[in-house]
Amino acid sequence: MENQEMPRPKVYEHREPRSFSVDVNVYNKLKQLLAAQGKNISAELNEWMQTRIAELEGTALNMAEHPSYETLKVEHERLYRKALQQYKLIKQRGTLDALFNLAKSLGLDDAEYGNVAEVAPKLLEQWQGMSTHAYMYVAMLQNMQRVKELERQLTTYILDNRPETATETATAVA
After folding, report:
1. Does residue 7 sit in helix, strand or coil?
2. Where are the alpha helices (DSSP H) in 19-130?
3. Number of helices and strands (H, E) in the chain?
């Protein structure tokens, strides 16, 4: 059988390995810090190079305001999994319903989690059970708040970068 290459995933479609000489200590430190955030060094370097190109061309991008789609997806998945783990642990401890009911009575927006910062202190003050459960519940709410923010950013990115349909093209030409 011939030695055939496996097709590359679409995310790597326009990418190929390159060699660079870098300070080992700097590289290892950056790799470690990015791994703690669930990011990889290739994505980080691609973003940095895009920003640098824009700066050199005089069209500076603010990557903090427009992070790459892949970075958003990775962060969304990481935080969602973390919140799900917290949810399961609180449920196992038998305090999920009581914490949820208290949070709702304090006005928690459980659709968008937009008011977690206002509800959390009240919840911690009024909770009669183990404080550890309340802290874990607040951490879960904070993670879900960030998940919702990332979902809005992902949705915006997808809608802003969708291919034009034939109708849109015809309208633009007319």
Report:
1. coil
2. 24-36, 41-57, 69-92, 96-105, 116-126
3. 7, 0
Query: d(Cα 143, Cα 165) in Å, to the nearest integer?
Result: 36
CA distance 57 to 40: 26
**Paired tokens of 118:** 């206002």
d(CA 122, CA 106): 7
CB atoms within 10 A of CB 6: 5
Distance, in Å, from the CA atom of 67 to the CA atom of 58, rounded to the nearest integer, reads: 19
Question: What long-range pairs does 76-85 form, CB within 8 A, spacing at least 24?
Answer: 76/147, 76/150, 76/151, 76/154, 77/38, 78/38, 79/143, 79/146, 79/147, 79/150, 80/143, 80/147, 82/143, 83/140, 83/143, 83/144, 83/147
The one-character DSSP state at 66 is S
Dump pLDDT digits (tens) for 64-116: 455 577 788 888 998 999 999 999 999 999 999 999 999 999 999 989 999 99
d(CA 11, CA 19): 20
Structure tokens at 152: 């809005």
Spatial CA neighbour of 128 closest among 106, 102, 147: 102
